[in-house]
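Many introductory courses stop at the sequence. We go one step further.
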Amino acid sequence: MNSANLRRRQFAGVLGLALLAPMAGASSAEAALGGRPRPHPVTMTLPTPTGPFPVGTMSLHLVDNARTDPWLPTRDAAARELMVTFWYPARPVPEQAPALQLPSGVAAEWQRLVEQKEEFSVEPGAVDWAATRTHAVHRAPVRHRRGGLPVILYSPGRNLPRGFGTVLAEELASRGYLVVAIDHTHETIAVQFPDGRVATVLDATEEATLRALADVRVADVRFVLDQLEKSDIADVSAVGMFGHSIGGATAAQAMYDDPRILAAADLDGAVGSGAEAIGSVVEDGLDRPFLLMNSMLGNHHDDVLSSLWKNLRGWHLNLQMTSAGHYAYTDLQTQLPLIAAAGKMPADKLAGLVGDVEPARSLRAQRAYLSAFFDVHLRHRPDRGLLNGPSAAYPEVAFIG
Protein backbone atom coordinates (compact mmCIF):
# COMPACT_ATOMS: atom_id res chain seq x y z
CA MET A 1 0.00 0.00 0.00
CA ASN A 2 1.45 3.36 -0.95
CA SER A 3 1.79 6.16 1.60
CA ALA A 4 -1.10 8.21 0.18
CA ASN A 5 -3.54 5.30 0.43
CA LEU A 6 -2.30 4.44 3.91
CA ARG A 7 -2.83 8.05 5.01
CA ARG A 8 -6.38 7.99 3.60
CA ARG A 9 -7.18 4.76 5.47
CA GLN A 10 -5.80 6.20 8.68
CA PHE A 11 -7.78 9.39 8.14
CA ALA A 12 -11.06 7.55 7.54
CA GLY A 13 -10.51 5.15 10.42
CA VAL A 14 -9.23 7.47 13.09
CA LEU A 15 -11.42 10.47 12.32
CA GLY A 16 -14.57 8.50 11.67
CA LEU A 17 -14.39 5.67 14.16
CA ALA A 18 -11.67 6.83 16.57
CA LEU A 19 -9.03 4.45 17.86
CA LEU A 20 -10.46 4.24 21.34
CA ALA A 21 -12.65 1.41 22.59
CA PRO A 22 -13.42 0.18 26.11
CA MET A 23 -11.32 -2.68 27.39
CA ALA A 24 -13.41 -5.66 28.43
CA GLY A 25 -12.44 -6.80 31.89
CA ALA A 26 -9.80 -4.12 32.29
CA SER A 27 -8.09 -4.31 35.65
CA SER A 28 -7.21 -1.43 37.93
CA ALA A 29 -3.75 0.08 38.00
CA GLU A 30 -3.10 -1.41 41.41
CA ALA A 31 -4.02 -4.90 40.27
CA ALA A 32 -1.83 -4.49 37.18
CA LEU A 33 1.08 -3.73 39.50
CA GLY A 34 0.55 -7.02 41.28
CA GLY A 35 -0.09 -5.34 44.61
CA ARG A 36 3.16 -3.37 44.53
CA PRO A 37 3.11 0.26 45.79
CA ARG A 38 1.79 2.72 43.24
CA PRO A 39 4.41 5.02 41.71
CA HIS A 40 4.14 8.72 42.44
CA PRO A 41 1.69 9.97 39.81
CA VAL A 42 2.53 12.66 37.28
CA THR A 43 1.06 16.05 38.20
CA MET A 44 -1.21 17.14 35.37
CA THR A 45 -1.87 20.80 34.54
CA LEU A 46 -3.87 22.69 31.93
CA PRO A 47 -2.85 25.96 30.24
CA THR A 48 -4.36 29.17 31.58
CA PRO A 49 -6.95 30.83 29.32
CA THR A 50 -5.81 34.12 27.79
CA GLY A 51 -9.05 36.11 27.54
CA PRO A 52 -9.89 39.12 29.74
CA PHE A 53 -12.46 37.40 31.96
CA PRO A 54 -12.21 34.83 34.77
CA VAL A 55 -14.08 31.62 33.97
CA GLY A 56 -16.89 29.91 35.85
CA THR A 57 -18.29 26.45 35.29
CA MET A 58 -21.13 24.19 36.27
CA SER A 59 -22.45 20.80 35.16
CA LEU A 60 -26.10 19.98 34.59
CA HIS A 61 -28.06 16.73 34.38
CA LEU A 62 -30.65 16.96 31.60
CA VAL A 63 -33.42 14.44 30.91
CA ASP A 64 -35.24 14.37 27.57
CA ASN A 65 -38.56 12.85 28.56
CA ALA A 66 -39.78 13.07 24.97
CA ARG A 67 -37.12 10.63 23.76
CA THR A 68 -36.29 7.06 24.75
CA ASP A 69 -32.57 6.38 24.96
CA PRO A 70 -31.89 4.59 21.64
CA TRP A 71 -28.86 2.69 22.93
CA LEU A 72 -30.57 0.91 25.83
CA PRO A 73 -32.06 -2.57 25.32
CA THR A 74 -35.85 -2.53 25.01
CA ARG A 75 -36.24 -4.18 28.40
CA ASP A 76 -34.35 -1.25 29.99
CA ALA A 77 -36.12 1.52 28.08
CA ALA A 78 -35.78 4.91 29.75
CA ALA A 79 -35.70 8.59 28.86
CA ARG A 80 -32.50 9.92 27.31
CA GLU A 81 -30.21 11.37 30.01
CA LEU A 82 -27.33 13.71 29.32
CA MET A 83 -24.63 15.51 31.28
CA VAL A 84 -23.47 18.90 30.04
CA THR A 85 -20.90 21.38 31.30
CA PHE A 86 -21.20 25.16 31.05
CA TRP A 87 -18.13 27.40 30.91
CA TYR A 88 -18.80 31.13 31.02
CA PRO A 89 -17.22 34.54 31.75
CA ALA A 90 -17.47 35.04 35.50
CA ARG A 91 -16.92 37.54 38.24
CA PRO A 92 -13.76 36.86 40.28
CA VAL A 93 -13.94 34.40 43.20
CA PRO A 94 -10.28 34.44 44.32
CA GLU A 95 -10.65 32.28 47.43
CA GLN A 96 -12.26 29.29 45.70
CA ALA A 97 -10.29 26.38 44.18
CA PRO A 98 -10.85 25.68 40.49
CA ALA A 99 -13.08 22.81 39.44
CA LEU A 100 -11.74 19.39 38.50
CA GLN A 101 -11.33 18.42 34.86
CA LEU A 102 -13.00 15.00 35.25
CA PRO A 103 -15.42 13.51 37.80
CA SER A 104 -13.87 10.66 39.79
CA GLY A 105 -15.90 7.91 38.11
CA VAL A 106 -15.02 9.16 34.64
CA ALA A 107 -11.36 9.55 35.57
CA ALA A 108 -11.23 5.94 36.78
CA GLU A 109 -12.65 4.60 33.52
CA TRP A 110 -10.33 6.77 31.46
CA GLN A 111 -7.33 5.66 33.51
CA ARG A 112 -8.15 2.01 32.88
CA LEU A 113 -8.45 2.67 29.17
CA VAL A 114 -5.14 4.48 28.66
CA GLU A 115 -3.29 1.93 30.76
CA GLN A 116 -4.71 -1.01 28.80
CA LYS A 117 -4.92 0.28 25.23
CA GLU A 118 -1.81 -0.16 23.12
CA GLU A 119 -2.39 3.21 21.41
CA PHE A 120 -1.50 4.91 24.72
CA SER A 121 0.51 2.39 26.77
CA VAL A 122 0.53 4.67 29.82
CA GLU A 123 2.24 2.95 32.76
CA PRO A 124 -0.15 1.73 35.47
CA GLY A 125 -0.56 4.28 38.22
CA ALA A 126 1.48 6.90 36.35
CA VAL A 127 -1.27 9.53 36.35
CA ASP A 128 -3.99 10.49 38.78
CA TRP A 129 -6.50 11.67 36.20
CA ALA A 130 -8.99 12.61 38.92
CA ALA A 131 -6.65 15.24 40.37
CA THR A 132 -6.31 17.61 37.38
CA ARG A 133 -7.82 21.00 38.06
CA THR A 134 -9.10 23.46 35.51
CA HIS A 135 -8.98 27.27 35.66
CA ALA A 136 -12.74 27.63 36.14
CA VAL A 137 -14.48 28.14 39.48
CA HIS A 138 -17.52 25.99 40.17
CA ARG A 139 -20.71 28.08 40.16
CA ALA A 140 -18.86 31.41 40.08
CA PRO A 141 -21.29 34.28 39.45
CA VAL A 142 -21.94 34.88 35.76
CA ARG A 143 -20.70 38.08 34.16
CA HIS A 144 -24.02 38.89 32.50
CA ARG A 145 -24.34 40.62 29.16
CA ARG A 146 -27.44 42.44 28.02
CA GLY A 147 -29.30 40.11 25.69
CA GLY A 148 -27.37 37.09 26.98
CA LEU A 149 -24.04 35.51 26.16
CA PRO A 150 -23.31 34.16 22.67
CA VAL A 151 -23.39 30.36 22.79
CA ILE A 152 -20.90 27.81 21.48
CA LEU A 153 -21.79 24.11 21.70
CA TYR A 154 -19.11 21.42 21.91
CA SER A 155 -19.33 17.74 20.95
CA PRO A 156 -16.31 15.54 21.83
CA GLY A 157 -14.79 12.73 19.83
CA ARG A 158 -15.95 9.16 20.16
CA ASN A 159 -15.34 7.74 23.65
CA LEU A 160 -13.72 10.98 24.84
CA PRO A 161 -15.30 12.62 27.90
CA ARG A 162 -16.45 16.20 27.43
CA GLY A 163 -13.84 17.23 30.00
CA PHE A 164 -11.09 16.81 27.41
CA GLY A 165 -12.40 19.88 25.62
CA THR A 166 -11.71 22.06 28.66
CA VAL A 167 -8.76 24.06 27.32
CA LEU A 168 -10.55 25.44 24.25
CA ALA A 169 -13.83 25.82 26.14
CA GLU A 170 -12.18 27.89 28.88
CA GLU A 171 -10.42 30.00 26.28
CA LEU A 172 -13.67 30.86 24.54
CA ALA A 173 -15.42 31.49 27.87
CA SER A 174 -12.62 33.83 28.93
CA ARG A 175 -13.37 35.83 25.78
CA GLY A 176 -17.06 36.21 26.59
CA TYR A 177 -18.80 33.09 25.28
CA LEU A 178 -21.08 30.61 27.02
CA VAL A 179 -19.61 27.23 26.02
CA VAL A 180 -21.77 24.14 26.50
CA ALA A 181 -20.13 20.70 26.22
CA ILE A 182 -22.25 17.59 25.79
CA ASP A 183 -21.43 14.01 26.76
CA HIS A 184 -23.24 11.58 24.46
CA THR A 185 -24.29 8.93 26.95
CA HIS A 186 -23.31 5.27 26.28
CA GLU A 187 -20.94 6.41 23.52
CA THR A 188 -18.60 8.39 25.78
CA ILE A 189 -16.23 6.15 27.74
CA ALA A 190 -18.03 7.14 30.95
CA VAL A 191 -20.67 9.64 32.04
CA GLN A 192 -21.11 10.31 35.75
CA PHE A 193 -24.49 11.55 37.00
CA PRO A 194 -25.14 13.57 40.17
CA ASP A 195 -26.44 10.52 42.04
CA GLY A 196 -23.12 8.74 41.50
CA ARG A 197 -24.19 6.46 38.65
CA VAL A 198 -21.57 5.98 35.95
CA ALA A 199 -22.88 5.06 32.50
CA THR A 200 -20.23 3.38 30.36
CA VAL A 201 -20.02 2.48 26.67
CA LEU A 202 -22.64 0.04 25.41
CA ASP A 203 -22.12 -2.55 22.67
CA ALA A 204 -24.91 -0.92 20.68
CA THR A 205 -22.83 2.21 20.14
CA GLU A 206 -19.72 0.21 19.30
CA GLU A 207 -21.63 -1.63 16.58
CA ALA A 208 -23.57 1.35 15.24
CA THR A 209 -22.89 3.06 11.92
CA LEU A 210 -21.48 6.58 11.90
CA ARG A 211 -24.79 7.86 10.61
CA ALA A 212 -26.66 6.25 13.52
CA LEU A 213 -24.21 7.77 15.99
CA ALA A 214 -24.49 11.19 14.37
CA ASP A 215 -28.29 11.05 14.35
CA VAL A 216 -28.37 10.49 18.12
CA ARG A 217 -25.73 13.15 18.71
CA VAL A 218 -27.65 15.71 16.66
CA ALA A 219 -30.83 14.94 18.62
CA ASP A 220 -28.82 15.49 21.82
CA VAL A 221 -27.56 18.83 20.53
CA ARG A 222 -31.00 20.04 19.52
CA PHE A 223 -32.46 19.07 22.91
CA VAL A 224 -29.72 21.00 24.70
CA LEU A 225 -30.42 24.01 22.50
CA ASP A 226 -34.11 23.77 23.43
CA GLN A 227 -33.12 23.93 27.10
CA LEU A 228 -30.85 26.91 26.49
CA GLU A 229 -33.77 28.83 25.02
CA LYS A 230 -35.25 28.81 28.53
CA SER A 231 -32.11 30.34 30.05
CA ASP A 232 -31.69 34.05 30.75
CA ILE A 233 -27.91 33.91 30.31
CA ALA A 234 -27.85 32.48 26.77
CA ASP A 235 -28.28 34.48 23.58
CA VAL A 236 -29.74 31.82 21.28
CA SER A 237 -29.73 34.26 18.38
CA ALA A 238 -25.93 33.86 18.30
CA VAL A 239 -25.15 30.13 18.44
CA GLY A 240 -22.08 28.38 17.08
CA MET A 241 -20.77 24.84 17.44
CA PHE A 242 -17.49 22.97 17.25
CA GLY A 243 -16.41 19.42 17.87
CA HIS A 244 -13.52 17.02 17.61
CA SER A 245 -13.44 13.93 15.38
CA ILE A 246 -17.01 12.60 15.05
CA GLY A 247 -17.98 15.57 17.23
CA GLY A 248 -16.81 17.82 14.40
CA ALA A 249 -18.86 15.81 11.91
CA THR A 250 -21.78 16.16 14.31
CA ALA A 251 -21.34 19.94 14.25
CA ALA A 252 -21.72 19.93 10.48
CA GLN A 253 -24.88 17.82 10.51
CA ALA A 254 -26.36 19.68 13.49
CA MET A 255 -25.92 23.02 11.70
CA TYR A 256 -27.60 21.57 8.62
CA ASP A 257 -30.56 20.30 10.68
CA ASP A 258 -30.96 23.25 13.04
CA PRO A 259 -31.09 26.83 11.73
CA ARG A 260 -30.29 28.17 15.21
CA ILE A 261 -26.64 27.16 14.67
CA LEU A 262 -25.08 29.97 12.64
CA ALA A 263 -21.46 28.78 12.33
CA ALA A 264 -19.67 25.47 12.89
CA ALA A 265 -16.08 24.25 13.17
CA ASP A 266 -14.94 20.67 12.61
CA LEU A 267 -11.68 19.79 14.35
CA ASP A 268 -10.22 16.80 12.49
CA GLY A 269 -13.51 15.02 11.87
CA ALA A 270 -14.29 13.01 8.73
CA VAL A 271 -17.84 13.10 7.36
CA GLY A 272 -17.59 10.31 4.78
CA SER A 273 -19.41 10.06 1.47
CA GLY A 274 -22.03 7.91 -0.23
CA ALA A 275 -23.18 5.03 1.96
CA GLU A 276 -20.54 5.99 4.53
CA ALA A 277 -21.75 9.59 4.92
CA ILE A 278 -22.64 10.76 8.41
CA GLY A 279 -25.83 12.35 7.11
CA SER A 280 -27.59 14.49 4.54
CA VAL A 281 -25.21 17.43 5.04
CA VAL A 282 -22.56 15.67 2.96
CA GLU A 283 -24.55 15.85 -0.28
CA ASP A 284 -26.80 18.80 0.51
CA GLY A 285 -23.99 21.02 1.83
CA LEU A 286 -24.18 24.12 4.00
CA ASP A 287 -24.98 27.77 3.36
CA ARG A 288 -23.51 29.07 6.62
CA PRO A 289 -19.87 29.56 7.76
CA PHE A 290 -17.87 26.35 8.20
CA LEU A 291 -14.29 25.97 9.44
CA LEU A 292 -12.33 22.76 9.00
CA MET A 293 -9.11 22.33 11.02
CA ASN A 294 -7.13 19.18 10.27
CA SER A 295 -4.15 17.27 11.59
CA MET A 296 -1.44 15.49 9.60
CA LEU A 297 -3.97 12.82 8.63
CA GLY A 298 -5.55 14.75 5.78
CA ASN A 299 -7.65 17.64 4.51
CA HIS A 300 -10.61 18.36 2.24
CA HIS A 301 -8.90 16.77 -0.75
CA ASP A 302 -9.35 13.35 0.87
CA ASP A 303 -12.35 11.19 0.05
CA VAL A 304 -13.84 11.41 3.55
CA LEU A 305 -14.21 15.22 3.26
CA SER A 306 -14.22 16.09 -0.44
CA SER A 307 -17.95 15.47 -1.05
CA LEU A 308 -19.00 17.84 1.71
CA TRP A 309 -16.40 20.41 0.70
CA LYS A 310 -17.62 20.74 -2.89
CA ASN A 311 -21.18 21.29 -1.61
CA LEU A 312 -20.37 24.15 0.77
CA ARG A 313 -22.09 27.32 -0.43
CA GLY A 314 -21.36 29.64 2.48
CA TRP A 315 -18.06 31.01 3.81
CA HIS A 316 -15.63 28.11 4.35
CA LEU A 317 -11.97 27.60 5.16
CA ASN A 318 -9.70 24.58 5.60
CA LEU A 319 -6.68 24.93 7.88
CA GLN A 320 -4.19 22.14 8.52
CA MET A 321 -1.41 21.59 11.06
CA THR A 322 0.64 18.94 9.27
CA SER A 323 2.78 18.28 12.36
CA ALA A 324 -0.23 17.68 14.62
CA GLY A 325 -1.81 14.34 15.49
CA HIS A 326 -5.52 13.63 15.73
CA TYR A 327 -5.71 14.24 19.50
CA ALA A 328 -3.84 17.53 19.26
CA TYR A 329 -7.30 19.12 19.11
CA THR A 330 -8.10 18.00 22.65
CA ASP A 331 -6.64 18.59 26.13
CA LEU A 332 -4.42 15.56 25.48
CA GLN A 333 -2.23 17.89 23.39
CA THR A 334 -0.96 19.42 26.62
CA GLN A 335 -1.32 16.42 28.94
CA LEU A 336 0.24 13.51 27.08
CA PRO A 337 3.61 15.27 26.59
CA LEU A 338 3.84 15.66 30.38
CA ILE A 339 3.38 11.90 30.78
CA ALA A 340 5.92 11.10 28.07
CA ALA A 341 8.44 13.58 29.51
CA ALA A 342 8.19 11.72 32.82
CA GLY A 343 9.00 8.48 31.01
CA LYS A 344 5.55 7.04 31.69
CA MET A 345 4.53 6.38 28.07
CA PRO A 346 6.57 5.58 24.94
CA ALA A 347 7.60 8.55 22.84
CA ASP A 348 6.41 6.88 19.64
CA LYS A 349 2.91 6.62 21.11
CA LEU A 350 2.98 10.33 21.83
CA ALA A 351 3.86 11.20 18.24
CA GLY A 352 1.09 8.99 16.91
CA LEU A 353 -1.54 10.62 19.11
CA VAL A 354 -0.71 14.33 19.15
CA GLY A 355 2.07 14.59 16.55
CA ASP A 356 5.38 16.36 16.99
CA VAL A 357 4.08 19.93 16.97
CA GLU A 358 5.27 21.92 19.99
CA PRO A 359 2.26 21.81 22.36
CA ALA A 360 2.27 25.49 23.31
CA ARG A 361 2.43 26.58 19.65
CA SER A 362 -0.30 24.13 18.66
CA LEU A 363 -2.60 25.44 21.36
CA ARG A 364 -1.79 29.07 20.57
CA ALA A 365 -2.80 28.54 16.95
CA GLN A 366 -5.99 26.66 17.82
CA ARG A 367 -7.06 29.37 20.24
CA ALA A 368 -6.35 32.14 17.74
CA TYR A 369 -8.14 30.67 14.72
CA LEU A 370 -11.13 29.21 16.54
CA SER A 371 -11.72 32.43 18.46
CA ALA A 372 -11.36 34.54 15.31
CA PHE A 373 -13.82 32.33 13.45
CA PHE A 374 -16.54 32.67 16.06
CA ASP A 375 -15.81 36.36 16.68
CA VAL A 376 -16.32 37.11 12.98
CA HIS A 377 -19.40 34.97 12.41
CA LEU A 378 -21.24 35.26 15.74
CA ARG A 379 -20.18 38.72 16.95
CA HIS A 380 -19.37 40.36 13.59
CA ARG A 381 -15.98 41.49 14.84
CA PRO A 382 -12.96 42.00 12.55
CA ASP A 383 -10.33 39.25 12.40
CA ARG A 384 -7.53 41.64 11.42
CA GLY A 385 -6.76 39.50 8.39
CA LEU A 386 -6.07 36.27 10.31
CA LEU A 387 -8.59 34.24 8.30
CA ASN A 388 -7.50 35.67 4.95
CA GLY A 389 -4.24 33.78 4.48
CA PRO A 390 -1.11 32.29 6.11
CA SER A 391 0.36 34.18 9.06
CA ALA A 392 4.01 34.37 10.06
CA ALA A 393 2.79 34.23 13.68
CA TYR A 394 1.42 30.71 13.13
CA PRO A 395 3.78 28.92 10.74
CA GLU A 396 2.37 25.52 11.78
CA VAL A 397 -0.95 26.36 10.11
CA ALA A 398 -1.38 25.90 6.36
CA PHE A 399 -4.29 27.30 4.33
CA ILE A 400 -5.51 24.48 2.06
CA GLY A 401 -6.84 25.60 -1.29
